[in-house]
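QUALITY CONTROL LOG
STEP: pairwise intake check
CHECKER ROLE: data steward
CRITERIA: each record must contain a sequence immediately followed by its structure tokens, with no blank fields

ENTRY 1 OF 2
RESULT FIELD BELOW
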Amino acid sequence: MVAVFYICAMTAFATSNPAAKIDYEVANQQPQTNLHQPFFRPLNGGNDFFIQRQPNQNANSVKKPNLSSVSAKDPASAKSHPGLINAALLASKYAKYIGNKFKGDDAIDAKGKFVIEPSQQNFVNEYNKCYGTNVSTLSGTNGFYCFSKRTIHLIPNAEFGTAFHESVHKASALVSVISNTAWLAEKDFAFDLNEGLTSFYTKDILESDYQVKNYIDGYATQRKKAAALIKNLGEDEVAKFYFQYNFMPLLSKFGITTIKGDMNNVLVSKLKSAF
């Protein structure tokens, strides 16, 4: 299963942390899902993240890997899949938005960054360590991305599609954004928006770039809404928002062209009305 936007270089949350409780509550509101990504996490280190950035038009001249023999239902492999997914994302149609992510120690195939847990209990333990929760089970949760460690964690029998989905979360700027109360106040919308977009980009990359046709997750409803949002507001504008948190091109679609103070309330309001 998967969830919504997340953490940036944060310390572990205490069990009493409201956001951590939200994560668990939201995760358990999603029946029949096979991925999980906890809710928005705070950004530590100032406001530099909100400086608007343009896509790097020359980013990532990576050769497209051949995924013709890969199925989204294949068992995830800690040996062969991290490098394959890393290359697939950096050679995808969204490479210019991903930019210099997935390089060096932040690469998906960097040492210790892609973990298939040896047991379900290990998986739960790592989840609790990452998100400051104290849950005993994670039914229906097959993977999560821990931004504080930049690590992808999967259950022992996770599928390639799950690993790819979590890797798209890692590519997203939304994982490191939301300490803002505007997003926290709209936790259900935030969850649906992030999961819808992540599901859309995962399926789009696998199918359009690599002809992998059998990707399935638990977010068909959210993905349909995300597709409509992209169609109505623009592929470039939504991609800049999702991968870079460059939101002004998106807000310009609503006639907003000037940054005035904290724009998160405006952003949440406009996106919620359009989703």
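ENTRY 2 OF 2
RESULT FIELD BELOW
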Amino acid sequence: MQEKLAYLFPAFVLKYTGKEYNLIVEKHQFDLDTRIADSGRLLGLDIEGFDIQENSFLDSELENQILSYIFSCSFSDILHSKGKEADLISGFSMGIYSALYHAGVIDFNTGLLLIRDVFSLVQKLLRNENFIMASVVGFTREEINDYIKSEESVEIVIQNGTYSYVISGKEKEVKTLMDIFQEEGAIYLSMFNLSSPYHAKVLRNNALEFEHLVRKYSFSDPIVPVLSMIDQAELRTAEQLRTEIVRNVSQPLNFSKSIQSMNEQGVKHFVEVGADTSLLKSSKFIDGDFDFKAISRGKWL
């Protein structure tokens, strides 16, 4: 079987490696500054002051998502220009928008507007309730579910590995559980600077509102299959990908199962296309016959 290549697009930046800007601007002469400025004007966001050395906007949820999208799409443009095409692609959480851009499903500005509109609708639906997402490493799914039974709003929303998960819920309930996980010997715990409970059941009853939002924009069939991180199906039509955007808001993801599924289909090489190395780190919890690189480390371009 021919060895296949997959590109994976991350959701948001936890910490820049510091190499991303030079790779895009200096090595490949891509005008990233103009793209950032134009994006900010379109969205009415003040992001022109971005400074990669200062890890700018990591504490600003929407701005972080937008900048993550800009970096991933800029790397995408460079990959296309170099003729480095993948056999399969997938987007992790909010990385679905840059994945769709790479696949030719949406144009660049549509991705920007979708990210903003989805974020705004989520915030509206929460009605000022404080939610949070957190990473928990060191317990099985069954063990985590046993702990969270007592907290009504909390659920597992992402599986990164057999012992690596992301939970979401009301801030007070999640923080209570984090104290318990700490006492019970968690290997690693971290709370994300996110108030939007993406992939959580709290948004499931509002699917029709998200569908109306998505239908405002033009979608095309993908030039390369897009693998769903929800159910590992290969998505090959514009309509399937519209539906995936809606599902992505309120359905749990399984990163480890998605990597294993692609690996079983012959994918031996994975490349994280974006700033940071969050997916590379998560891949270390997954068994399989593959190698994994992060474009932000300069290992692919």
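INTAKE CHECK: passed for both entries
DESCRIPTIVE NOTE, ENTRY 2: The chain has two domains: 4-123+202-297, 131-191.
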